[in-house]
Every structure is written in C-alpha cells, then in structure tokens.
Amino acid sequence: MLFERLFGPRTPPASSVVHLSVRPQPLPLLMVRNPRARRYLLRLRPDGTARVTIPRGGTSAVARQFVERHAAWLERELQRLQSQPRKPAAWTIGTEILLRGDPVRIEVGPNGDDKEIEGPSSSGYGATSEDDATGEAETVRFGGELVRVSDPVADLRPAIEGHLRKLATRELPPRVLELAAQHGLTVRRITVRSQKSRWGSCSRRGTISLNWRLIQTPASVSDYICLHELVHLRQMNHSPGFWREVERVCPDYRMAKHWLKEHSGLLR
Ligand SMILES: [Zn+2]
C-alpha cells in the first residue's frame, strides 16, 4: 500500500528522501508534495531532518535547487539545533528540568532516602497491613513540588510530567480568563493538552487550547501565548494587524518568542 502510494506508476511520488551534503554532517532531506502549497517551503525539523514542500506544478529538481540556494541557512539552523541543550530521555534523581522558567533539580523527597529496617512489633515480627501502607510512600521533589512515585530509581518522567500537566490544568485556564477580562475578550472554552509541536491554538469556535508544557516556561512567556491565542479570537490570522494587536496587549512579545525559539527542545 505505502509502497504503491510512494512509488506507484500512475501517481507522482508523494514524498522521497535524498541526502544533502551540508556541514557538519549530511542531512536527510524529505521532499513532500503538497497540492495546496503555493510556494516551495524549506524547514528544518526538530528531529534534524530537512523538509521541502513542493507546491502544485512544482518539480523535485526545482525543489533541490531551492534547497541548495539555502544551504547556508540550513547549516546555520542545524548548528543552532545541535547547540541547544537536549532534553534527557529519562528523568532521574539529579536531572534538571524547567519549572516556570527556572531550572530545578529533581531530588529525593522526604522519607524517600530513609533506609528502614523493620523491627518487631509489639506482637512480634511480621508486618501488619498498616505497616505495608506506610512503608511504600516514596516521593521526589523539585522546585517546591512533591510527587509520589512508585519507584524512585526508574524513569521519573511519566510521573513528573503527569504532575506538571496537573499543575498546568489548574493554573493556566484561570490565567487566560484573567487576561481575557483585562482586555475585554470572551473565551468560550479552554483546554490544556499535550500537543507535539505547538504551544497553543485557537479554534474558530472560540476554544483556546494550551500546551501543559507552558508550566515550564517563564510566566511572561506563558502569558504571551495566552494573549496570542486571545487576540486570535478577534483576528484568525497572522497579519500585520494581528501582530500590532499582540504588541499592544503584550509589548515584550518579541522576547517571549525568542525564549520559545531557544527552548524549542521542550516540545520534543
Ligand atoms: Zn497564532
């Protein structure tokens, strides 16, 4: 099926991969045809592959030329990507993560490092069910937060991310409402989600969706995303007028955008 779709005789290839020779290493280039695209588009994805969009009527030869003309840009972006601090795959005791823009270290929580030896109870050896319940509380802490984990030696990331998401779900929607009230806007619904590649979005029906990872960004950055989406309630585009309005409600928005660019790895 997939093979036919990619290489079948009747349809032109939907996508193909070639390798570009750029420094510091050859770069896989994915060529993707998109009949709805109006021009050639080049993008370096966070996974380190380049992607060029071929518009309707375009050819892979022209796409290739287009990419080669922008090889210096790709090299620069690749170097920037590689110099970014990488998010470690697993989180363990000692891992540093961001909370509200500050780096915080994951540490053993209270009781977590107590070595316990069970002595005899008044009725002799052998744990009661009550002892079992109290003996299993293992916690880790980071930046004033305390998280219960089943095994502090395992990857702590699922438990901690779950906790961060809970914090975000509690804190972000009230903040959006507060900002909306300040600027006389009405938002119908706010959801906190786990988007892969965006910090927030606004639907035509007036629902604002925010990425829970905003709890990891400084408040000014998280506010910028909330305001950006709120302004979309008035303008569903990124026109100069939209950006003027963003600047009016969030004068430092360029700094926030810069921070997000520097920390795009958070979304990976
Ligand atoms: Zn937008």
Characterise this structure.
This protein has 268 residues and is an alpha+beta fold. The protein has helices at residues 2-7, 60-69, 71-83, 129-135, 157-182, 219-232, 240-249, 253-262, and strands at 15-20, 27-34, 41-44, 50-55, 96-99, 102-105, 107-108, 138-142, 145-149, 189-193, 200-202, 207-211. Helix content is 36%, strand content 21%. The chain folds into 3 domains: 2-83, no CATH class; 106-156, no CATH class; 159-267, Metalloproteases ("zincins"), catalytic domain (Zincin-like, 2-Layer Sandwich), CATH 3.30.2010.10. Residues 1-13 and 123-135 have low confidence and may be disordered. The longest helix has 26 residues, at 157-182. The strands form 4 sheets. The protein has a 4-stranded mixed β-sheet. The relative contact order is 0.09. The chain has 8 helices and 12 strands. Bound molecules: zinc ion. Residues 228, 232, 238 line the site of zinc ion.
Spell out which ligands are present.
zinc ion
CATH superfamily placement of the largest domain: Metalloproteases ("zincins"), catalytic domain
| Biggest sheet features | 4 strands, mixed
End-to-end Cα distance, whole Å, is 30 Å
The DSSP helix count reads 8
Tally the structural domains. 3
> What structural class do you assign from the helix and strand content?
alpha+beta
Shape: globular
Which residues sit in consecutive blocks of at least 5 with pLDDT less than 50? 1-13, 123-135
Helix content: 25-40%
Number of strands: 12
Mean pLDDT: 84
**Under the CATH scheme, which class of the largest domain?**
Alpha Beta
Strand content: 15-25%
Query: What is the CATH fold-level name of the largest domain?
Result: Zincin-like
The spatial strand order of the largest sheet comes to 1-2-4-3
- Please state the second-level CATH architecture of the largest domain: 2-Layer Sandwich
Helix/strand order: HEEEEHHEEEHEEHEEEHHH
Radius of gyration: 25 Å
